[in-house]
Design brief:
Elements lengths: L1 H12 L10 E2 L5 E2 L16 H10 L6 H20 L17
Antiparallel strand pairs: 1-2
């Protein structure tokens, strides 16, 4: 039984390598999800270097380090404010208002 379990775990952790099919592109350089779609080029076709450079230039730039750091610090500040909130579990009599029954 241990041998079967070990063999099963080995088969799950060591799958065979599979190669993907070549991708398809539109003539302007955009990647096509469906190779049989309208206006796609045949599999294996690559855009010209000039078209590829234009396509890369039109893509949005990745965020800068300062932007990532600012987002991280903002989320950390939010978590800090949540951690500093007073406890309210309703078990103490001070937790409840005297005005309402």
């Amino acid at each position: 039984m241990r041998l079967m379990t070990a063999l099963f775990v080995f088969m799950l952790l060591a799958p065979p390598l599979a190669k993907a099919a070549p991708g398809c592109f539109y003539p302007n350089g955009d990647f096509a999800m469906n190779c049989g779609g309208h206006g796609t080029m045949p599999p294996g076709w690559r855009p010209s270097p000039e078209t590829y450079r234009k396509w890369l230039a039109s893509r949005p730039q990745p965020p800068e380090t300062g932007e990532i750091l600012g987002a991280f610090l903002g989320i950390a500040a939010l978590f800090a404010l949540i951690a500093l909130m007073p406890r309210f579990d309703g078990s103490r009599s001070e937790d409840w208002s005297r005005d309402r029954p």
